[in-house]
User: What shape does this take?
Amino acid sequence: MQNTATPTHCPYCALQCGMNLTPVPDGGVEVTERADFPVNRGALCGKGRTAPAVLSSSVRLTSPLVRSGGTLVPATWDEALDRIAEELQRTRAEHGPDACGVFGGGGLTNEKAYTLGKFARVVLGTSQIDYNGRFCMSSAAAGGIKAFGLDRGLPFPLEDIPKTGCVILVGSNLAETMPPSLRFFTELKENGGTLIVVDPRRTKTADQADLHLMPRPGTDLALALGLLHLIVAEGRVDEAYVAERTAGWEDARAAAMAHWPEYVERITGVPVPQLREAVRMFCEPEAAMVLTARGPEQQSKGTDTVGAWINLCLATGRAGKPLSGYGCLTGQGNGQGGREHGQKADQLPGYRKLDDPAARRHVAEVWGVDPDSLPGPGRSAYELLDALGQDIKSLLLMGSNPVVSAPRAAHIEERIKSLDFLAVCDVVLSETAALADVVLPVTQWAEETGTTTNLEGRVLLRRQAITPPEGVRSDLEVMHELADRLGVEKGFPTDPEEVFEELRRASAGGVADYSGITYRRLAEENGVFWPCPTQDSDTHPGTPRLFLDRFATDDGRARFVPVSHRASAEEPDDEYPVLLTTGRVVAQYQSGAQTRRVDELNAAAPGPFVELHPRLAARLGAAEGDPVAVVSRRGRAVAPARITTGIRPDTVFMPFHWPGEGRANTLTNPALDPTSRMPEFKTCAVRVEAVKS
Ligand SMILES: Nc1nc2c(c(=O)[nH]1)N[C@H]1C(S)=C(S)[C@@H](COP(=O)(O)OP(=O)(O)OC[C@H]3O[C@@H](n4cnc5c(=O)[nH]c(N)nc54)[C@H](O)[C@@H]3O)O[C@H]1N2
Ligand SMILES: Nc1nc2c(c(=O)[nH]1)N[C@H]1C(S)=C(S)[C@@H](COP(=O)(O)OP(=O)(O)OC[C@H]3O[C@@H](n4cnc5c(=O)[nH]c(N)nc54)[C@H](O)[C@@H]3O)O[C@H]1N2
Ligand code: SF4
Ligand SMILES: [Mo]
Assistant: This one.
């Protein structure tokens, strides 16, 4: 490896901040500023800055582990791979191919996600594959496809944000979850634009807002309908735009008219004058945007909620025009690319549909298999995890830690334990890996090359900067070796660029067309936005801004979705009178598998807590730091009280980064959105109790 700085990207969130990595003498790597990448211009959050700590051998896995006599013991790669192949073979022979499950992750590179989807369909012949992105942005994806015919997180680059007139940020705490992106919103305000934040908590992000709406968790759908009602009532609909560029307005209008502002105030708790102020701020400027994140999306009505916010953009002519539009702030490092290339239950590469005969033919040809041999769509993530030990007997898991991150986690943990066989590829011994029969230690971001697609739809090259330690292999090597042992000798290359070349062909002509993108281009340019088809004549520049001429529907028009408010799957009652919502803190990432191994991050965020309002705390007799128990129909979690007036008195908040007694997901409700199959992470009914010491 070279000793000079390698320009690359952070392993964690969907901003995919640029950074330089320089090897240091002790074998590690140092992060230095990379100012040329426009998303972060050199700025990094604490997680990105400390990411090299997880490369050190003291916290990571460097040998395969195989369960023997109840404990995981070091084994050779051949022993571990042989064991996985034998077990998968046995499951298939005894119970059929669908008894083998595969679970992937939105943190995996495009090459890995693509290969995992192919591995499931071609090597295992199973339909039972899905991934953790289902828990992330699937409602926004479903909403975007319904309305625009295409799902790409942001239809414009982040650098457009400072130039618009108003942004409504719905359920995003980006000051903590994507800190360098806050700059775009500060610049927006400096330019005279306004920021509206919708969050039941007064977060660091809400602190920046010109207007902060604080709805009850789970009521964003009503809120958006109430705003649309006012837009109609105040004559603010862009009739010409609606006539020219959309379809379905009459039904959407009728649905909104049934949501009177006073009714919406009763549901959401947001006072009518604030609704009116929000409408004024959103409608007065020339251009405006709505951006959603997990707050409104992780609900059992997430798809409809996203639809309602999109309707607001469509009615006011704020989509498919410069500096206007609806976008979703996708979360994981490759949350965008990870949802495009086939690790999703219903999907083939290039965002193709598995139940589309033409898509099957195209991909089968690239894969050199009979289209009829490809299985059909499988189950969504929660449903797949819930079927473990039932009709799914063996599971291969790569890039997720569901023991901490899945809803109703105690139940899912039991399901995982009831498997005949579990194989996990990971960089650390996560809580889920600890339950496995075989654990394979894999290479990480700085030790391998691959592409990711950030929340803007910008495809990026993550370059290898250092040599991996002895004993680890890449996920691509794992799949190559397993395919070989399961009788498929060709089609699973270990060189990421070779995989990408195949992905280009597989995605060609699809919605997410990468065929015009090459590693060379990615190395020379600061990423390329898809769609980027191949052109005979010259190089396609990529598509930073979508929908300016037409939407991706058959007739080019965007679709209004007629939606009405409905209650959450669990509303408070006498027994469970409080609402629980969950989310993140700045210093920990997801299930914490990686960041809980970094001293500096643990010092900043040492453990779980229950955020609650002083009035609720007083009722319980709980003081700051006292342990409180949160009890739902699924279970009980205990964590110290963090008392703040910055949360609604009817709501408590827990971050979900920790296992054990304070695991937030012991409590959460796996009620699923009917379209996206997203679980209701953002609201369930609980009882809060003081814990006597
Ligand atoms: N530090 C850190 N950064 C991360 C991650 C991480 O784990 N840690 N994960 C990455 C990933 S994968 C993702 S998906 C993103 C997530 O990024 P965000 O969506 O910003 O993160 P969350 O904290 O889950 O939720 C955002 C906000 O939604 C609010 N909220 C809760 N319930 C509701 C509701 O019913 N309605 C509304 N409007 N708001 C509500 C919460 O109070 C919270 O402030 O972050 C990415 N970045
Ligand atoms: N209550 C509640 N629960 C939530 C959420 C919430 O807001 N509230 N948010 C949900 C969301 S948005 C998400 S995205 C999920 C995320 O939750 P998880 O799916 O658990 O995500 P991570 O913790 O990032 O797990 C990734 C695992 O893969 C490993 N890993 C990292 N890179 C690689 C690699 O290249 N190869 C392999 N093989 N392994 C790798 C990491 O060490 C880690 O163990 O959590 C969901 N759960
Ligand atoms: S904001 Fe996201 S991509 Fe940027 S340094 Fe932090 S974790 Fe990494
Ligand atoms: Mo996520």
